[in-house]
Amino acid sequence: MQDPKKVAQYGLDALLEAGADKAECSLTLTDKHELNVELGEFALMRTTFDTQVGLTAIRDNKKGSTSINKSDNDSLDRAAAGVLDIAAASSPDDAYDIAEAQPPAVFSSGSDSPDVDRMHSRMKEMLESIKVRYPKLVLREAYLDFTRTRNYFLNSNGVDFVTNKGVYTLVAMFSSRDGEKVSSFNYTAFSLRDLERDLLSCGSLDMLMQQSTEQTNTRPLEGKFIGDIIITPDCLGDMLHFLSYSIGDGPMISGTSIYKDKLNEQIASPLLTMHSRPVSDEICNGYFVTPDGYAAQNSTILQDGVLKTFLLSLYGSRKTGLDRAVTSGGAFVVDPGDTPFEEMVKSVKKGVLLARFSGGSPSDNGDISGVAKNSYLIEDGEIRYPISESMISGNVADMLIDVTAISRERVDYGFSIYPWVAVSGVTISGK
Amino acid sequence: MYSLDIREYAKLFTAYTELRAQENRNVRITFVRGNNTHNSRSSTSGISARVYSNGSWGFASNPEMTENSVKLAIKAATDNATFLDSRERKGKGPLPVATASSVNDYSTRKPRLGQKELLEFARELDNHIALKYPDLASRITGINCLDMEKTLLTSDGSYSHSMVPRSIIYVVLSLVKDGVPTELSDVYGGFGQFEDVFTSPSQLFDGIETQYEHLVRKSQGVFPDAGLRTCVLDAELAGILAHEAIGHTTEADIVMSGSVAAGKVGEEVASPLVTLIDFANLFGDETCPVPIYVDDEGTKAEDAVIIENGILKGYMHNKESARHLGVLPTGNARAYQFSDEPLIRMRNTAILPGTDTLNDIIASIDDGYYLIRPSNGQADSTSEFMFGVTLGYEIKNGKIGKAIRDTTISGVAFDMLKTVTMVSPDMKWLSSGMCGKKQPIPVGMGGPAIKCKVTIGGR
Q: Using an 8 Å Cβ cutoff, are B108 and B18 in contact?
């Protein structure tokens, strides 16, 4: 391939020559090196190279987009002509636009290339540790990858961003078996800048594996009651997704978001402060450029429970008349509280340590119900036993308000950082 | 459509090798409350090779479809297999030899519609909804089309070429009543290119009218009474039950990792009324939503009978799991993108129809629920499952009662299937599903209505 910057410039020029009033071209080159484990054994080594060229054109307030994974001039010329055809067919909309000019910048994080031998030795070390420490555990699948992405984002307003990023990510899925008894599966993932630490000590992996071996002996809860739940860091992202989705383009443009009129209002407990920090040092797997071509910035979403920003793109902003967010979401960091996890447990009369939530997506108003997986009964301030066939019902918007404590401890996943969060007044039902 | 003929590269194979050329083509159009928020086409294509060496696999892919990229992919995959083998020395023997060939191109023979015509189609449908149902707070109308074209060559001598399309229109309707939003989605279409699936927007009007009527009732709906209840799972829920709760626990890789189905072949795991099959390509004379004739390892795809009259009969396999468990591969190895390795995946998983009419089933229940439409679903290695339910009704004294609000049902499939006492004769396929297991993949799910006991969430 020729100089990637020149390829991206060629794509942008092709759009303008084809008749675009405004245009943008994003070229992403991805190299992935991945080691796969199945059933506790190395199974596959995978190397993939990919090219993605995203082309967007606006002409007469009509917009079209396409994506191809070829970067030769002929392919770009054909794609550019196609984008103008797609745009010509669309409806005009004054809200279509591209990012305004910003100072050119080159962003970099992580390594340029993987240390494959280190990847193998760290995985092998993890497998050996698991065999010794958790003999009942079955590592169904795990993969450690190093992904290097180079992105070139150009638009006709003069935006010129280059991003170089290299990051390791481990994904693991596992269960435990003790004779005929099988635990629920569980999974987790985390990203790392380097492989300096042993993998089992990263993210929540060790804690979840230890819990898995306890979960071959579960008991269903009896009856139905209103209780407290302590949401673990691995589960918290699912709950916060309702908030981040509800303040994003879709529900805000359609007008169905329950938060559409709540900017600078209290929508969550004063204990809850949440940020999106894609360019923070504490987040190794963030991003530097938003999909619509702005240099990403860190942003506080909830400050002491008050909604400080919507997560609107440029289009969402122009469509709703509200401010564009300086982040495109993700890279969420929730501030720690001042309660040690052990104290949180002690304060629960009867409830559940909710470690994984397997449920339907929340409805527009936040109603949610689902199964408490890999979870535990808490009674009289103590974690009693792992549970099965037990459901949680409630409303996520209410849960955000009903937060009663946030842990001092947090788990760093590389792409987010979450504490344990206690919530009161949740319907818990068993058999 | 790509033009590279991969058959001439067999001479480059030095070990067990799969060489695949693939292109996925997508169309995505979305109108949110009349605003055209997405209007795009995309394609992703390339070459991949997977090489086996004594129990270790190497995989490599390249987006270019040239002779040089084929050579590079084969070499990199071979190097990767060699790297792992040199460190692991697993010493596992050869894979079962499976040779098959097929050409199945489901491209339409009608003139193709351009983006303009597709946009007009969606816009007309959206305008119809806006005019006919002015009380809606919001609506989303969208078109999603996916063509998956693959060519596979293996060192065993298998060769296949397939083009399997899917075209769906999704409609999301929202009402706000007393400040509370209520939403109901439905999906239309399925297997085939757009021109073969849809003729005109008016073809969907009756379905949307029914969707709207359900939405109005749902907006006045009640929370279900949480707990173990007698329920009728309509066809779409039976289909997702077949896929999530049973299907996943009987994928051989999940079995080998210790799923509850391990060691249970020959045992009674369900009511004798239950027969469950993962169909390869045909259900009777009808083409299934995701027809697979040769899988991505070059194995002829066969129907995998999972449960027959309540007895667990077998699992779904790729070559490696079949060798491990001493059975024949079933042709369930599938990859999503050119850059993905094949995994054991379902194809078209269905519970077979029975003889009790839906009316008789409902009439037999004094106090329960009729559950019609699922959202997402998930199941566990224990066979404990969960499905979101976005449309359902109370059953009181054998009659349909009030609508219920969004809820979730759960249970342990191998227990719950023993509670099945009635099965309807009608069969419906859900052909818009995407299953997630490292990679997404299109799957078909099917079933009749079944009467069973299941735990329902609520207040």
A: no
